[in-house]
């Protein structure tokens, strides 16, 4: 195994920490019905891992919506208000053991998600993981979201680690492209029901159970 501090691990949140993508798909389907639009599967896949702003830019362009992007974002916030999800119930069971194992081996850990800070805080609090992350970064801090690499570059900077010594764990094409552009190593996590293109990953896995400090350390 690499010596302590030789590398850092950056986790995505949705689809890696919690199995939230199916939940959001259901909420979004209801939202699209309200707007009387049909969003094809190829567009839906492009949205995964990106910000809410990028989401509505793509949908507006594809569907020819008359509302502004800002109006559509506000409409989503209002539509989703009151919808509840217990993130602890959809947390992937291998997350905590992996993070604790990495921490015990001196590996610094970060969370870098395109989600807004409020939702990130809710997820890590519900799941009891907040104290385990050395750095937490939200996509709302940046003008451009994944696949832009800035979120990962800033995360590496806050970790005090060179990008080449960072390993990103992602489930989306957008996230893997951002990590590639940042010059980082990548683990692609497959989802059983959402067929994402993970070809940019250095390794692909079905579950975080397949990872360990030794396996990750051998990547850098």
List keywords for this structure.
single chain, 220 residues, alpha/beta, Rossmann fold, DNA polymerase, domain 1, 2 domains, six-stranded parallel sheet, 9 helices, 6 strands, globular
Estimated radius of gyration = 17 Å
CATH homologous superfamily placement of the largest domain: HAD superfamily/HAD-like
In the CATH hierarchy, the architecture of the largest domain is 3-Layer(aba) Sandwich
Biggest sheet layout: 6 strands, parallel
Q: Taking strands numbered 1, 2, ... along the chain, how are they ordered across the largest sheet?
A: 3-2-1-4-5-6
Q: What's the CATH class label of the largest domain?
A: Alpha Beta
Number of strands: 6
Between the first and last Cα atoms, what is the distance in angstroms? 11 Å
Shape: globular
CATH topological fold name of the largest domain: Rossmann fold
- SSE ordering: EHHHHHEHEHEHEEH
Structural domain tally:
2
Which oligomeric state applies? single chain
Binned strand content: 5-15%
Q: What is the helix tally?
A: 9
Structural class: alpha/beta
Q: Mean of residue pLDDT?
A: 94
Q: What helical percentage do the residues reach? A: 40-55%
Pfam family, one: Hydrolase
Protein name: HAD family phosphatase
InterPro entries: HAD-like_sf, HAD-SF_hydro_IA, HAD_sf, PGP-like_dom2
């Amino acid at each position: 195994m690499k010596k302590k501090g030789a590398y850092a691990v950056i986790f995505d949140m949705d689809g890696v920490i919690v199995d939230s993508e199916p939940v959001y798909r259901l909420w979004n389907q209801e939202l699209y019905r309200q707007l009387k639009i049909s969003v094809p599967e190829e567009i839906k896949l492009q949205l995964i891992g990106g910000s809410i702003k990028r989401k509505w830019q793509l949908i507006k362009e594809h569907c020819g919506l008359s509302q502004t992007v800002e109006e559509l974002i506000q409409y989503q916030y209002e539509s989703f208000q009151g919808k509840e999800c217990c993130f602890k119930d959809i947390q992937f069971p291998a997350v905590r053991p992996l993070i604790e194992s990495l921490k015990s081996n001196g590996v610094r850990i970060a969370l870098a998600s395109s989600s807004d800070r409020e939702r990130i805080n809710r997820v890590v609090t519900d799941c009891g993981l907040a104290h385990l992350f050395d750095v937490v970064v939200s996509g709302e801090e940046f003008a451009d979201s994944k696949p832009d690499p800035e979120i990962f570059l800033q995360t590496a900077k806050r970790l005090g680690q060179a990008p080449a010594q960072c390993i990103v764990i992602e489930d989306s094409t957008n996230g893997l492209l951002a990590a590639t552009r940042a010059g980082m190593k990548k683990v692609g996590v497959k989802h059983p029901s959402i067929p994402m293109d993970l070809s940019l990953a250095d390794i692909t896995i079905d579950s975080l159970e397949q990872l360990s400090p030794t396996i990750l350390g051998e990547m850098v």
